[in-house]
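Action item from last meeting closed. Structure (106 res):
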């Protein structure tokens, strides 16, 4: 039996051309893939990783901020107590001076 050749229409030829171009693009893309992988590998090797102590520095900074706020509260509390003690000291001094003046006048 002899094979019959079917006549291809222009639409089928265009379709074959499009498929052929797609395949060629995929082949070219796959041919570039090893180069891209090698480039990415070199970039990864040349990139310096972040220091291990970076997380420690961040945690220390947050602690210092919180501690600073606590220190401010403690300082205000201490100054308030100091103000009360200063008032009591001045009152006691005035009372003693008043007592001395009364004794010296009598």
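Sequence:
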């Amino acid at each position: 039996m002899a094979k019959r050749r079917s006549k291809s229409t222009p639409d089928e030829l265009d379709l074959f051309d499009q498929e052929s171009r797609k395949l060629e693009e995929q082949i070219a893309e796959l041919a570039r893939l090893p180069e891209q992988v090698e480039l990415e590998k070199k970039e990864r090797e040349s990139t310096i990783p972040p220091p291990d102590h970076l997380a420690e520095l961040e945690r220390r900074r947050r602690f210092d901020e919180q501690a600073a706020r606590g220190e401010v509260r403690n300082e205000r509390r201490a100054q308030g107590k100091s103000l009360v003690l200063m008032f009591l000291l001045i009152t006691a001094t005035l009372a003693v001076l008043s007592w001395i003046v009364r004794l010296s006048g009598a």
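Note appended to the action item: The two ends are 153 Å apart (CA to CA).
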